[in-house]
Amino acid sequence: MTISHKIISNISVDCVIFGFDFEKLNVLLVERELVDEKSGRILIKDFTLTGYHIFEDEDLDKAAYRILKDLTGFENIYLEQFTVFGKTDRVSNEKDQIWLTYLNQGFSERILTVGYFSLIDSTKVTLSHNERKIHWFPIDEAHNLEWAFDHKQIFMKALEVLRNKVRTEPIAFELLPERFTLTQLQKLYEAIYGTPIDKRNFRKKIVQMPFIVALKVKQKGVPHKPAQLFLFSREVFEKTKKERLGFLF
Amino acid sequence: MTISHKIISNISVDCVIFGFDFEKLNVLLVERELVDEKSGRILIKDFTLTGYHIFEDEDLDKAAYRILKDLTGFENIYLEQFTVFGKTDRVSNEKDQIWLTYLNQGFSERILTVGYFSLIDSTKVTLSHNERKIHWFPIDEAHNLEWAFDHKQIFMKALEVLRNKVRTEPIAFELLPERFTLTQLQKLYEAIYGTPIDKRNFRKKIVQMPFIVALKVKQKGVPHKPAQLFLFSREVFEKTKKERLGFLF
DNA sequence: GCAAAAGTGTTACCGGTACACCCATGC
DNA sequence: GCATGGGTGTACCGGTAACACTTTTGC
């Protein structure tokens, strides 16, 4: 299948990309900067999500995967559509209009954007910067940033959906390496919810889940007692699905 | 604010409308029928959700409210966007192409549709049929119907989202009259999940919720012991929100 | 008085929560 | 040997689940 690469001008996809550095939950943002050519003054300096228009003969989901692949080089990334943003004025504030004019898209037609969030194991990814300035920001700091368009709103909705989803589905593992320690998993949940969790109770609950499988391997080269490594088995999870009412945590 | 009424041709909204008749959970569908003018043979006979394109200067949510108002006459209906359907082939099967050709839209550009679900108190609504054949169908039967476009898929996703949402948010009340009995509420939950619930345990749990307020009024004219009427107070719900972790049922 | 649905309490069990100390490794 | 995080068990409490009979009304 070939792709026409002719874009649909009034529909785009924006991805809220979450990563975990074993300490904090982060979101990946792209710096947007516009400098006045004559004066050298900075007209715009803020942050956007990564997004792009969809192509005419491209499924919506495919467009989101394409955007992620362009950025990270990976294909099998957890991705989920969460909301469409369709207010007529979502891009009409002054700063954004200046930007769109600069891109020769100013005051063009209204654009509707579909929000996706994705979870990636940030230990694996080296970002392909290709001339863009991209950075990870802890989600706590993200609230105070200067955002482009309605991207702050999109981000906040993504975070809300993520928090809800993590309560009932085993998706947190997407943010960790394939083999992880229980402490890493615990820190991840703490980072997502922003609240401490009791270590012993956490371990009891996790270990009894049949789809969390203990490996025989342990950590190596750490300056303390090496931790046991675990694996999330989606296969076992799917098999035991009916018996459970939910992935209640 | 005036509305241009110029439609955006590649974006539409489809509403999955749920209602409750005190026995079953139903979905509202519109019959689609195409008869060959010469032979009189029925070419197409199936069911669609209610939907329409959005207008150029109309917020997405507004478009969904407009569609519902046209159908029911009411403005304050519970409505929630749940998913966008954006596969390139979502309307390309033969039957649908015949239909679109008939409407002079055949083989036109790809249409992306935004799914909304809405919950209405069906005791209040008299449907404004304006020449369309519309009917309530129990959700169990809906699976066996002949559906138009990808509307079966949209319906099933809506049902899934509804079931999840009802577990954590107090939205079931939208399907009942303002004053309701506990038995009605219980039947509603049973209808949504398709499973029986223990009466005494159900009542204990419900009555202790501060936002379920008992009225002094009782049913009248029923041929059995009249039931007490209750009310869901959104005000109390919002006030006590922080104290709760969720509307866990 | 009978049919039909409303309303009510107790017990047993399980899962959640709270909490403090010893262990294995690298340097 | 010391610093660092890994790993473990028990007791209490609260919520959930199972279960059967009496009450009030219209006819």
Class inferred from helices and paired strands of chain A? alpha+beta
Rg of chain A? 20 Å
CATH topology of the largest domain in chain A: Nucleoside Triphosphate Pyrophosphohydrolase
Q: List the uncertain runs of chain A.
A: none
Q: What quaternary form is this?
A: homodimer
Supply the CATH architecture of the largest domain in chain A. Alpha-Beta Complex
What's the CATH superfamily of the largest domain in chain A, by name?
Answer: Nucleoside Triphosphate Pyrophosphohydrolase
Largest interface: A-B, 23 and 22 residues
Strand content of chain A: 25-35%
What's the structural domain tally of chain A? 2
Main sheet attributes: strand count, strand direction, barrel closure of chain A: 7 strands, mixed
CATH class of the largest domain in chain A: Alpha Beta
| DSSP, total strands of chain A | 10
Distance between termini of chain A?
A: 43 Å
Number of helices of chain A: 7
Q: Based on CA inertia axes, which overall geometry of chain A fits?
A: elongated
> Mean pLDDT of chain A, as a whole number?
91
Helix content of chain A: 25-40%
Tell me the series of helices and strands of chain A, N- to C-terminal: EEEEHEHEEHHEHHEEH
